[in-house]
Design brief:
The protein has 356 residues and is of the alpha/beta class. 38% of the residues lie in helices and 18% in strands. It has an eight-stranded parallel barrel with strand order 1-2-3-4-7-8-9-12, surrounded by five helices. The structure holds manganese (II) ion.
Length: 356
Amino acid sequence: MKMTFRWFGANSDPVSLQQIRQIPGMTGVMGFLDYKEAGEVWTREEIGAYVKEIQNAGLECEVIESVNVHEDIKMGLPTRDRYIQNYITTIRNLAEFGVKVIVYNFMPVFDWLRTDLHRMNPADGSYSMYYDERELQGVDPLELVRNTINNANGFSLPGWEPNRLAELEETLNRYKNIAADDLRANYKYFLDAVIPVCEECGIVMACHSDDPAWNIFGLPRIAHSAEDFEKIVQLHDSPSNAICICTGSLGSDPKNDLPAIIRHFGKMNRVGCAHVRNIKHFNEREFCETAHLSSEGDIDMYEVMKAIYETCPDIYIRPDHGRMVWGEEGRPGYGLYDRAMGACYLSGIWESLQKG
Ligand SMILES: [Mn+2]
C-alpha cells in the first residue's frame, strides 16, 4: 500500500507540499492540473513542471486524478474522436513522467454532488459536507448550477464550470435520449480506444464511482454498484481497465457491501487505487461525511483495509474528504488536519494487519 494525499496544485490548494510531506507515512500525492478543461491535451511541459515540483518536495506523483472525459465522448457525438485522441496523447505524456494510475469518471454532466458543503456538527463544532436528497426535490439542474454560480447556497457541482452554462441546457436535453446501455456503449468505444495505449505504456485507468451512488436528475449513471463495476471491467477485458474504490461514494448506498466489492475486484486485479473515508447515514439518502474512524460513521474501516490488505495490497490509497476542524478554512472536504488524522489512522490499521 502506498499512502498518498490529494493535491490540487500550488495555485489552488491552500495545503502545501511540505505540509503533506510532514504527514507520517505519506509517499506521494494524487495530483491534478486544475487549470485543464475536459478534452484538452495535458502537455509534456505542463506535466513535467508539475511532477518536478512534487518530486522536489520529496514526494511521488504516480497517480493523477480527474483527467476528465469530455462530455461529447460520453454522449457519443461525432466530435468524440478528436477528444479521444487528445486523451490518448495525455495518457502517453503522463506515462513519460512516471504516472501509473489515472483516476477518472464516466458520470454524465455532474461530478460529485452535496447539498451542503459546510454543515456544523453540533456535537463538536466541526464542519463537514452533507447530502440530503429532500433538498433537491423540485430543484432543476439548471437552477442548481445558477445558484452555485451565484453562491446562493452551499451546493457544489464540480465538473461543470460556470462558463459552460449555455451548453448545459442542450446537454441535459441530449441525455434524455441516452439510456444506461447507450452510455455503456459509448464507454466501451472510449475504453477500446484508450486501454490498448495504457497497456503499451504501463498505465491503469481507475474508474471512480458515482457520488452519491444513485441516479440524480434522471441522468443515466452506470458506476455505483458491484453489478455496474462488473459490466465496466468486462467492457474491455484488461488489467489496465480498473476501478477506483471510493468508500464514501459507494458507501452512500448502504446496500453496497464494501469489503465484498473490494475482495471481488481485488482478486481480479482490477482495483487501481482507493479513496478511503467514512460517512454516517441519518435517513435514506441523507448522510454526512465524518472523521475516518469506524466509530464515527457507518463504514467499518478495519474491514475495508483488511479486504485491501488481503486482495490488493499494492494499491495506492488516500484519505478522502475530511472535516474542517481546529478553525481551518479551505477547500471543502480537502482540509489538511482531518485528512492527516485519517491517513495516520489508516496507516495504523495497516500496521496492525501486517503484524497481526
Ligand atoms: Mn472519491
